[in-house]
Design brief:
With 202 residues, the protein is α/β, with parallel strands linked by helices. 44% of the residues lie in helices and 17% in strands. It has one domain: 2-Layer Sandwich (Nucleotidyltransferase, domain 5).
Length: 202
Amino acid sequence: MKYIIGIDEAGRGPLAGPVTVGAVIIPFNLIGQISKLKPRDSKKLNARQREEWFVYVKNHPKIFYAVANVYPRVIDRINISGATNLAAGRACLRLLSQNGISIEDCNIFLDYGLLLPENYKLKAKKLEAVVHGDELIPVISLASIVAKVKRDKLMTRLHKKFPEYGFDKHKGYGTKAHVFALKKIGLSPAHRKSFMFTKSRK
């Protein structure tokens, strides 16, 4: 085994926008170095800290990442769990193919609740979903940061298309301001119809 892959999601609970999964790969011999830096779950970092970590991952010569988004139309059709797992499979395949790495050389760790679809045939030597993995496994922490940063940027771009909803502020989550806008204006194509007027999950 030569590499460790971490996989995590951002955007499982919002009322609008995609669910985004990040996949990060590091060489096995880099684990100690990354652990000493103590990356944290993206939810425990502010926007500036997440951006700093993202730049670190992006610029590191031995760390690679990929992301995949699944959008509301598909979320509404196959449900959020299915959409999140679909994005996890796509992100992992993209990560391997873009960097010419064989799945046989990897151990894969996912944050608990994520699965890789069986039809993607991602049979790593070790494949484990870890409870609180985004806090306990540094490479999953990095994946959570990548997913969060990339999704937030996407939602900020989406705000330019639908400024009346305030996506740049709440990133699609079910805040009072967002729900008020929905009741006043109605749905946009960016909204998940199956989530409407239910409480946002964390």
